[in-house]
C-alpha cells in the first residue's frame, strides 16, 4: 500500500475539502482494514484531533462518535444494557482485543465490509448515521446508497430500547471472518438481518413483514419465515463457504434465534 501524505486536520470542513479534492484522498478510522480497501492513497486524512471518540446519552438515544474504538463500545454500560447486549456481543466476536482497540465504529461502517459482524446488528437496531454534508440518514438508507462516498461520518445514534435479541457468527475459528452472521431483535416487532451472504448485510424485509403480522408464531410460521428469508437474501458461494452450505447455516441459526427471542 502506498500513501503519499498523512494529514491531521483541525476541523471537519478542512477534512471535507481535502477529501473531495482528489478521488485518491481518504479518511482513516482505526486503520484495521485499510489494506482491504485501497492500494494507493494520495492524502490519508486523520480525524484524531476532532474529539469524535465518545459514547453518551442524548434523550432516548445513545450517541457514539465515529472515531470510538470497538473495544470502548463493547465494554460501555450503555451498550451492554442495550437490547440484551447484542451490539457488545457481536463486537466481542471480532478478532482479538488488539484489533478491537484499534478498529473504530466509523471505519467499520464506512467500509461496508461484507464480512462485518457489526452491520447486521446496526441494521436490526435501526440506527441513524450523521454525516457532515448529507446530514442524518438511517443505516438502511446508507447500506443501499452507493453515492455516499465523499462525506464524513460524524456519529451513530441508536434508540435506547429494551427487548430480546440473538446474534450468531459462524466461522472456521473465532479469529476468522464470518461464513455467515445473523442478528435478530424482538421489541415491538421482529427485525432480522443477515451478513456475509457473502454480500454485505441485509434486512430480511419479506420475512419480517410476514412474521410481524402473525399473532401465533408456530413452527409452520417459522418455516415460512425461513423460506422467505432464503429467497430474498440471494445467498451465494465463495472460498469460505458454498451457497448450499450458507443456506443450511441460515436456516439452522435463524430458526434457533427466532425460537430464542420468542420464548
Give, in order, the helices and strands.
Answer: EHEEEEHHHHHHEEHEEEEEHHH
Helical proportion, percent range: 25-40%
Q: Which CATH first-tier class of the largest domain would you pick? A: Alpha Beta
Number of strands: 12
- The CATH architecture of the largest domain can be named as 2-Layer Sandwich
Please state how the strands of the largest beta sheet are arranged side by side: 4-5-8-6-7
Provide the low-confidence segments as ranges: none
Oligomer: single chain
Separation, N- and C-terminal Cα atoms: 50 Å
Q: Would you tell me which CATH topology of the largest domain applies?
A: Uridine Diphospho-n-acetylenolpyruvylglucosamine Reductase, domain 3
> How large, in whole angstroms, is the Cα Rg?
19 Å
Strand content: 15-25%
Class by helix and strand content? Answer: alpha+beta
The main β sheet shows up as: 5 strands, antiparallel
What characteristic shape results from the CA principal axes?
globular
Mean pLDDT: 92
How many domains in all? 3
**So how many helices?**
11
